[in-house]
Amino acid sequence: MMVRPSLRILPQIFADFLNMCSRGAMVVSFLVFTSCFAFTLGVQQSFRVQPEEITTKISEATEVILKCAINNRAGQVQWTKDGSPFGSTRDIPGYPRHTMIGSDENGEFNLKISPVLLEDDGMYQCQVGPAPNHTYLISNEARLIVQRRPEAPVIKGAPEIAVTASVVSNLTCTSENGNPAPTLTWKKNGEVVTGAHHRSYPAGDETGKLSSTESALAITPSIDDMDAEYTCESKNLAGEEPISTKIKLNVRYIPIVGIVMDPLVAKEGDIISFKCKAAGNPQHGITYEWLKDDVVMPDKTENVMELADVPPEFNGITIKCKAKNSVGTGESSIAVTVEYGPRITTPPDDTEVDLGNTAKFQCEAVGNPTPKISWKRLGSNVLLSSMSTLQIDNVHNSDSGGYVCTASVRDFADVTATATLHIKSTPEISSSPDQFARVGKTANVECFTNTRPRPDRMLWQWEGGELEEGTEGRYSASIVSVDVYGGKKSTLQIRDVKKTDFIEYNCTVWNSIGVESLIIKLKEEEPTPWVIIIGGSVLGGAVLIFIIAIIIVLCNRCQARRRKRKLYEKERVEISPSEQKVEHHEPFYPEDVPYGTLNKPRYTAAPDNIYGSQRSHPRSRMSFESQYSSPSIDVYGEPQPVDYQGPVNYGAPYDRRPLDFEPRDFDDRDYGPLDNPDRDYPRDYDRDYPPSEPRGYVNPDPRTGDADYRPPSRASAGSHRDEFYGPQPPLGTLATNV
After folding, report:
1. Where does residue 598 fall: left (phi above 0), alpha (psi -120 to 50 degrees), or beta otherwise?
2. Final residue of a domain: which of 423, 446, 471?
3. Rounded mean pLDDT of the chain?
4. DSSP secondary structure string, 629-654?
5. CA 333 to CA 318: how far, in whole Å?
6. Are residues 181 and 329 in the same domain?
7. Residues 616 and 720 in one domain
8. How far is it, in rounded angstroms, from Cα 343 to Cα 359?
9. Is the N or C terminus of the chain more exposed, i.e. has fewer CB atoms within 10 Å?
């Protein structure tokens, strides 16, 4: 059974309790007091509804209600925020946006905040003071979260930031005044980038509720990142979609250099042009420098450069171009290729060997492309070897002589070097045994040998004298080496030659193997036969004059032909084929031709006779051309036959021209114009014109009945009379097969 305190002592207890509590603990003391008072009286009150956490966004909500409902309420109700009471009246003094709504009968004391501001964010409690027989009540803490979207992020240096390729740079993004603190995300060209460092800090607003976030992203850009787009996105719980800002990279880099060479493969003496292509950022203000084998070419400062008349020594050299801008220097190099003709660097040397031994010749050459070496005997086209070394085993006497080394490079002239193979033997003297001189002049008697081993001694002997080298009276002897032949020559010089000097001279040569002599006879030189010389000159002059005269005659004849041809073309009369009159005659067959001949197979080739020849006869043109030339020369200067002999019993040329006038005798008749219709031209068909063939099929074969088709004959084939009578088929295609 609960013991109730006396009512008369309650005021005193309450006063004592207030004295025990400090001013700062008023609320707690009140609750303790009301609890104790309620416990003393035995009154019970309880929460039917307690406040719960509410999250709202400033941009979306204008008010918020924190609910609190009490059963059997007996004490005073108040709300606290972060431990600070608002008051127990429904219209809370000092807080015009805060109101306790609901009915007292239902125990509803809901806290309405309108409009909601950022400063309303905090921890809220609903408290019920003590009353008689009731204890005090304190609800659960309910968090009112007032969210706010952060401000748009800002990237330092936006909208474009200059960075240097291969150099680390930092991108910094800041998003301020968000609640809760914003979260920042980096993207590159739409793809999320990780590795950024984030830092959140108070924004420093009056409420102390806002926060800001800073993010730093370290990048090492490359040239490929030029115009790359970085995005910084900011987001917190107050917004579903992130707020973003972008920045574009301006990547500065040293020039990227490339060299264009033209031609890529040059030939000796060509001009090679070089162009240095440099792409950098910044592009403006790029300077150039050229180097040849790392040696600066001071006179080359532009982006183009030429090497003129390139020598073979330039093959393989390196040309380098350096391009410089404010960021740094880039460079590129290219190797030069120069094709040049062969050059023999190691020519073969003359070789002396004994019979049966081995001889070797060495020949080295340079060129681009690499020269091809070939060996041949001097004066022969037989290839002996294509190696740089020519080796001849078991040498015979026939192997002695010259050997040619040829170095070849395509598109260039070949170069050669010659060496001689000498077979060791006793001296061989190759001078002429008969030599000549004139009286009163100086005679040079020569003794030459190219035998190997070279001579050790050369001696001249003659009647009454002997001399090896030096001078003795009118005689002097000298020995010289002849490089062309690789031998030695001894010359005996005789000054002021006399008749008595035309005698025999003995040349003796010694070498390490043996000795050899040659008798040389000095003869008197006959005087020059002036009569022969003069006669030859006169004859040559006459021949020359004759040749010149022939040339002049030929030129005059050519000019005369041109004049006649022009005259003929000028006065030519044109007659269309429709104006021509064609006469038809029965076929003509010579009486002495056997019957069997008239039925030969159909003509298939051009026979060499007057009936089938495809060559026109000059007489076939006389009727028209005689107006412009003599009877014996046609307009083209060709002679005409006086009397042409045809087949047997037929004494005139076979001409089948269709004419609109009667034929004439050109041999003994006067020549008149062809276009005179009143002129009675003489006729002699037996002599001038045989009957022409009829149109259609002719020459029926009595055995088979077949007929050979022959169109009407016209003028001779190949004649220029075609221009008068119209196009003429070849005579051979119209001739009767006989």
Report:
1. alpha
2. 423
3. 78
4. S-TTB-TTS-B--S----STT--S--
5. 6
6. yes
7. yes
8. 24
9. N
Using DSSP, how many helices (H) and how many strands (E) does the chain show? 6, 47
Q: Are residues 443 and 354 in the same domain?
A: no
**Residue 560, domain member (yes or no):** no
295 and 195 in one domain? yes
83: Cβ contacts below 8 Å, ≥ 6 apart: 27, 123
Encode pLDDT of 526-551 as tens digits: 876 665 778 778 888 899 999 999 99
Within-domain flag for 80: yes
For position 98, what pLDDT does the model report?
93
Q: Is residue 295 part of a domain?
A: yes
What pTM was estimated for this model as a whole? 0.49
Give dist(CA 463, CA 482) in Å, integer.
Answer: 28
User: How many Å apart are CA 349 and CA 453, to the nearest integer?
Assistant: 15
Can you spell out the DSSP letters for 515-537? Answer: EEEEEEEEEEPPPP-HHHHHHHH
Q: Are residues 304 and 379 in the same domain?
A: no
Q: What is the pLDDT of residue 628?
A: 40
On whether both 643 and 598 belong to a single domain, the answer is yes
Nearest to 618 by CA among 628, 608, 633: 633
Give the span between the Cα atoms of 531 and 509, in whole angstroms.
43
Report the distance separating Cα 231 and Cα 187, nearest Å: 5
Backbone angles phi, psi at 40, to 5 degrees: -65, -40
User: Does residue 57 lie in a domain region?
Assistant: yes
- Three-state SS across 465-520? EEECCEEECCEEEEEEEECCCCEEEEEEEECCCCHHHCCEEEEEEECCCCEEEEEE
**b/e per residue 599-624 (b: at least 16 CB within 10 A):** beeebeebeeebbbbeebbbbbbbbb
Here the tokens at position 589 are 């067959």
Is residue 139 located within the same domain as residue 154?
no
Q: Which domain holds residue 366?
A: 340-423
More confident residue, 266 or 33: 266
| Residues composing the chain | 738
Asked if residue 271 and residue 369 are part of one domain, the reply reads no
- 459-479: burial string, b at 16+ Cβ within 10 Å, e else: bbbbeeeebeeeeeeebebee
CATH of the domain at 448: 2.60.40.10
Percentage of the residues of the chain whose pLDDT score is greater than 90: 53
Give the tokens for residue 520: 């040389």
H helix or E strand, kind and range, residue 335: strand 329-335
Count of CB atoms situated within 10 Å of the CB of 207: 15
Last residue of a domain, one of 90, 118, 147: 147
Position 60 scores a pLDDT of: 63
